[in-house]
Design a protein that fits this description.
Blueprint lengths: L6 E6 L18 E7 L63 H7 L1 E4 L11 E4 L9 H7 L3 H14 L18 E6 L3 H4 L10 E8 L5 E7 L8 H14 L11 E7 L7 E7 L5 E2 H5 L15 H20 L14 E3 L5 E3 L4 H5 L7 H21 L15 H11 L10 H5 L5 H22 L4 H13 L16 H13 L13 H12 L4 E5 L5 E6 H28 L1
Antiparallel strand pairs: 1-2, 2-14, 3-4, 5-6, 6-7, 7-9, 8-9, 10-11, 11-12, 13-14
């Protein structure tokens, strides 16, 4: 009969009228729909509905005259739910012989109207499996930082925390002075040969400070070539203090500490600890041939890159010279200038030449002019693509302005050469604007990625509260507490968020819809959603604000119960 082909929809004004007959008052302002086979269908939401036993439920205010009764898809040949009326057949099950109620319930998903914006509530509907579904992949990108930046930061973090494995050389020290997790940073060829810039044997290792937990690049100076003494140690400490004002300069690996220890070779030696930048490579490794190191690539430097590098190093030289310091000869050697992320240059191992050659040169003005010559040699090597065969002729492929800049730097020691770093800045002209634009664009990208992760702990706090309430084994205090009242509503919401499957029965693992639902829950928006019980017999229309109030009230109830129990134990 027609009555057997229809489904009776029972609408309840509040959740408390149906669930909490024996529990405390619920704050949910929701609408409860109960489906049961048999009985006549309803076309108006303002009508009173009765169950098979004849119990009447309070009347609801009129919402829409277009509300449709719930009728299975198999018995409504051409019926489709519409976006205009989200309450019309919010769930249409498939053939029950093919899919169980639990599978059907989990298949209800979020869909989005064409005009809805990502993360908005106005365009969201709760639709049937035969509607086009969004996978959440687009939304997921808007909730988190870019994958490129995430991978870069993860690799840097891994390198900061790297340790030697058990198969490594057992004679290599794992701890040096106040630094642990010591790992060599140079290849075998580099660490076994004397430094081209310093003239003595050095070795660079990574170590993590016990005091602050930060990673440092520690330079070991061979104790047989530079014999440590109290006078040398005192002078090294003085050098550290002189470079302290420039420790945070954006184009410098700051000098942090100097100490004497004997972990390497069992002999006392001088060590200097600098700021460590994981994944950094020297300009020699990145661009130059015949460096004696493992080259990452021999890529030709473009004109724009060369100007950017020159501007960065000129900025550093001006700051160093204004502080009354100098990088000294060899400080701007291609093996000592590091290339970090996004074209940033940093000069490494500063202060070592101040320690090794404390009296050379006597005139600081001469030393600062030598820095200008060192910058000219650095640019000439990059333009030539080689340190051993650098020449002005090989740099002729670049613009006349770049050639004039290199020539002016190389002749800085002459009487008519560049006077100082301030005069050098005049060579750049409007090219500085391009550097500023690139840096500001990069800052905008980082700010955008940072804003995506702003207060990302909100969802974590929300999930902690939700999981503390769900399925609590508190039957000895109040039997069935976690399965009644507000907690039952939260249980259905938990299924709504995390237990979806697609049309083929595969679990939906995209996080986009989950994060969106949790964000709306945290904000407590008034948007309504439809929840279904696990047996498929009940539907519930409720807003995110209602669920948020249920979480807070249930969590506060747990907190108050814990405090009461503690106070009772203290009295005993």
């Amino acid at each position: 009969s027609e009555r057997d082909e229809r489904v009776d929809v029972q609408i309840v004004h509040t959740w408390a009228c149906h669930v909490r007959a024996c529990a405390s008052t619920c704050t949910s302002d929701a609408s409860f729909l109960r489906t049961s086979v048999g009985g006549s269908g309803m076309s108006e939401r303002d009508e009173l509905t009765r169950s098979a036993s004849g119990d009447a439920f309070p009347q609801l205010p009129k919402v829409s005259a277009d509300a449709q009764p719930f009728v299975p898809k198999a018995r409504r040949a051409n019926a489709q739910p519409t976006a205009a009326n989200v309450h019309a057949a919010p769930f249409v099950p498939r053939n029950r012989s093919q899919k169980t109620n639990v599978q059907a319930r989990r298949q209800v998903q979020w869909t989005r109207s064409p005009t809805a914006e990502a993360g908005g509530g106005s365009g969201d509907t709760f639709a049937t499996p035969n509607r086009r579904q969004t996978s959440g992949k687009v939304l997921q990108k808007s909730f988190f930082m870019s994958e490129e930046l995430r991978q870069e930061l993860k690799v840097k973090q891994y390198m900061n925390l790297a340790q030697l494995g058990p198969e490594a050389d057992p004679n290599f020290p794992r701890v040096v002075y106040e630094y642990h997790s010591v790992v060599p940073l140079e290849s075998g060829v580099a660490k076994d040969s004397a430094s081209v810039s310093f003239g003595v044997h050095t070795q660079i290792v990574k170590g993590v400070g016990f005091r602050d937990g930060r990673a440092y690049a520690i330079c070991y100076i061979d104790g047989t070539q530079v014999i440590p003494s109290s006078d040398l140690f005192s002078h090294a400490k003085d050098v550290v203090e002189r470079w302290k004002p420039l420790r945070n300069h954006p184009h410098l690996c700051g000098l942090h500490d100097a100490f004497i220890s004997k972990e390497f070779g069992g002999m006392p030696a001088l060590y200097l600890a600098h700021e460590y930048h994981p994944k950094a490579v020297s300009l020699a490794q990145a661009f130059l041939h015949n460096t004696g190191h493992d080259n990452r690539s021999n890529v030709k430097v473009t004109e724009k890159q060369l100007w950017h590098y020159a501007i960065q190093m000129a900025t550093l030289l001006q700051a160093v010279h204004e502080a009354g310091l100098s990088l000294r000869p060899g400080g701007l050697h291609p093996t000592k200038v590091l290339l970090t992320s996004k074209g940033r240059l940093r000069v490494s191992m500063v202060g070592i030449l101040d320690v090794l050659a404390r009296n050379f040169p006597q005139n600081m003005r001469v030393a600062q002019k030598q820095d200008l010559v060192g910058l000219g040699r650095l640019l000439l090597s990059l333009a030539s693509g080689s340190m051993t065969s650098a020449s002005v002729e090989r740099a002729a492929q670049y613009s006349a302005d770049m050639q004039r800049l290199i020539a002016a730097l190389l002749t800085s020691m002459d009487s008519n050469g560049l006077r100082d770093a301030k005069q050098l800045m005049m060579f750049f002209g409007d090219r500085v604007y391009g550097v500023l634009e690139d840096m500001h664009s990069y800052c905008d990208d980082l700010t955008h990625d940072l804003s995506a992760e702003l207060e990302n702990g909100r969802i974590s706090r929300l999930l902690m509260k939700l999981n503390m309430v769900l399925d609590r084994p508190d039957d000895d205090i109040e039997p069935g507490w976690s399965e009644t009242g507000d907690r039952y509503l939260l249980k259905l919401f938990h299924d709504f968020v995390f237990h979806h499957i697609d049309e083929d029965g595969a679990v939906i693992v995209e996080w986009g819809g989950m994060v969106e639902a949790l964000n709306k829950l945290d904000a407590g928006v008034q948007e309504e959603i439809v929840l279904m019980s696990r047996d498929g017999s009940s539907l519930l229309i409720v807003s995110y604000a209602d669920i948020r109030r249920c979480i807070e009230s249930s969590y506060n109830e747990i907190v108050q119960r814990s405090r009461l129990l503690k106070s009772q134990l203290r009295k005993k």
